[in-house]
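Let's practice the habit of predicting before peeking. Look at the sequence and jot down your guess about where helices and strands might fall. Then scroll down.
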Amino acid sequence: MRRLLALLLLWTAHSLAEQPVLRFSVVESWSMPLVRLEGDQPVEGLVFDLLQALAREAGVRPEYHVMARLRLQQAMDAGDIDVRCYASTRWFNDRPGNFVWSIPLIQQRDVLVGRPGDNDAVQPEQLPPQAIGTVLGYAYGTLEPLFAQGRLQREDSRSQQLALQKLQVGRYQHAVSNELSLQWFNQGLPAGQRLQVQAVLEEQALGCMVRNDPAIPTQGVLRALVRMKESGAIDRIVQRYGAAEYSGEGLGARP
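Done guessing? Here is the structure:
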């Protein structure tokens, strides 16, 4: 019995050693429900579960590289990462020539968020001059003209959660959040203390980008994502981290 167990462990170790290693990017400004970090490694969250499931489906070993949002493009250009997920084609002026896009995987919304009791719908261009809670390194296409004109000013935070916490304590009157993060933030609060959606700013599809290199199984990873989407595995991951009313329709700021 001991010999059989030793052979099984040896076979498992050998099988894992044969699996190619893929380097997945993780943005350090992400917070739950996207990712929770311990030390310098992700341990839970929607994106973490997605990447773990992708690694299993594609038969690869994941290696996570946590980095600042503003360093992502440099890392891609240098070939330092193999897979980048939770990204939109709208975030790039030019198509990255050395990466291949997956099919769209997740839909989510960017919303303008007000404080508890701010239930009235309002459009950003109707707001008086003020600071808006934003996340460092994120781009907000709908608001960029207002930022450029000086009608609104960015007040950047290191993470989406911190931006919402500052709104909650009155540092500013409005913030921008993706819908999923807002619902995660609100779900532990009494109804009278929940932050309010006042406008939908933007919707876009998110997917993954895989480095186009013969040294890695690019097409195998892309096919794995197709299978995961068609089987409903990705939608189940999204629902696992969504509030009860999350529809899975709509999407967000550039993370």
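How did you do? Residues 135 and 157 are 5 Å apart (CA to CA).
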